[in-house]
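Incident review: delayed structure delivery

Summary: a single-chain prediction request sat in the queue longer than the usual turnaround. Root cause was a stuck worker, restarted by the on-call engineer. No data loss occurred. The affected request and its eventual output are reproduced below so the record is complete for anyone auditing the incident later.

Affected input:
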Amino acid sequence: MEPRKIRVIGTGMALPAQEVSDTDLDRRLGLAPGTTYGITGVKRRFLSTSETAAQLAARACERALEDAGLQWSEVDCLVAASATMDQALPYNAALVHAELGLQDHRISSFDIGASCLSFLTALDLMSYLVEAGRYRCVMLVSADIATFGMDWSRLRECGIFGDGAAAVVIRRSQPGERSALLSAGLVTLSEGVADCRIPAGGSRHHPRRMAQDITPLSVFQMAGKQVFRRVAGELPAFVEQLLCTARKTMAQMAAIVPHQASQLALDHLSRRLRIPEGRLVDIFSEYGNQVGASLPTALHHAVGQGRLQRGDSLMLIGTGAGLTMGGIVMTY
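Output delivered after worker restart:
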C-alpha cells in the first residue's frame, strides 16, 4: 500500500476524579494487603462515580485541541471511537459534541466502533478521508466507563479495568513533513465472539423480551485464557505482515504502543514479538485497562514523555472483543 500522508498534531487525556489504589481495593473487598496487585498487576486506577463518558471525552478533546494549537473552527469532523456507549441513543459523538458546547459549530460527527480497537480502526479509516481532502482536521476521541459493569469479586478478569478518555487531532501532512501511515491491518476472529462480552444493552437481551432478571447479563464476561490462546498463534505472522507492508523492521520502531489489555498480555507481546528493551509503552500498572481509551492514552504518554520524536517509526497494536486483532505502523 502507498503511505497515507497524515500527521498527529495534538493529543490529550482525561481521567475521573476518583483515584483508587490497589490497597484501597483490598480494603473495599476485604482482602489481605497485596492481593489485588498480586492478581491484577494494577497499582492504581481511576473509577468514575458521577462523570459521564461524554464529559471525560470533552475534556480530552479540549486538551488535544490546545496541544495542536487549534480552535474548534478549524476542526471539521468529530469521531467517537469507544468500546462502550454512554446511552443506547443517540450515538456517542453527538453526546460529546453537545458536551463541548458546539451546538453552533456545524461539523460532521459519528462513531466508529471495534471494541478495544475502536481508536485504531478510526485512525485507519479516517486517514483515507483526511488524505483525500474530505476533512481538514479530525478529532478522534475514545472514552470508556466500563467499571460499572464489572464483577469485582472476579479480580482476575474484572480487577484489571479503569476508566478514562484520550483524544488525538489529525490532519494531512504538509510538504516537507514525513509523517505518514505506512501500513494497517484488522482481522476478525469471530470464533471468539463470545470470549469477551456484555450481553445486555441492545435488542437481543432487552428487558421487554426477557422473563429473567437482566442484571447478570449487564456484567462484563471474559474467558481470558481463551482470548490469549486464540491470539497467541496469530499475532507474530500478523505483525510480520504489517512490518513488511510498511517496509520496516521491529528494530526500527522507536515505540510499540499497545492496547493495555493486561500485564500478562503485555509481557507476552514483548517476548513473542522480540520487542527491543525499552520500546514497549507500558502504562498498565498506573491506569489498568481503559478499554477503547487505553490505546490512545498510551500514545498520549509516548508523545508526552518524549519517547517519540518527529520522523520516528511506531507501531500501534492490540486485540479487542469480537475477537479482533489490529495494528498500524506510522511515521510520527
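Verification: The mean pLDDT is 92.
Action items: add queue-age alerting; document worker restart procedure.
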